[in-house]
Prior knowledge:
Elements: E1 2-3, E2 10-15, E3 22-26, E4 49-54, E5 62-63
Amino acid sequence: xxxxxxxxxxxxxxxxxxxxxxxxxxxxxxxxxxxxxxxxxxxxxxxxxxxxxxxxxxxxxxxxxxxxxx
Length: 70
């Protein structure tokens, strides 16, 4: 996850179909203060939500990259 602007501390969450249960969360395991979730095994087909956020009241553009491996 990359924020296209000033440096900031991003947070990335993967939620279940209800949007209430966190399956995975990361606050800073990417480069610098950026977030990444990798090597997740999701065995149940369905709808999932990716939530992108940051500490503070930052707004702007983010670059989110998702790769699915069969």
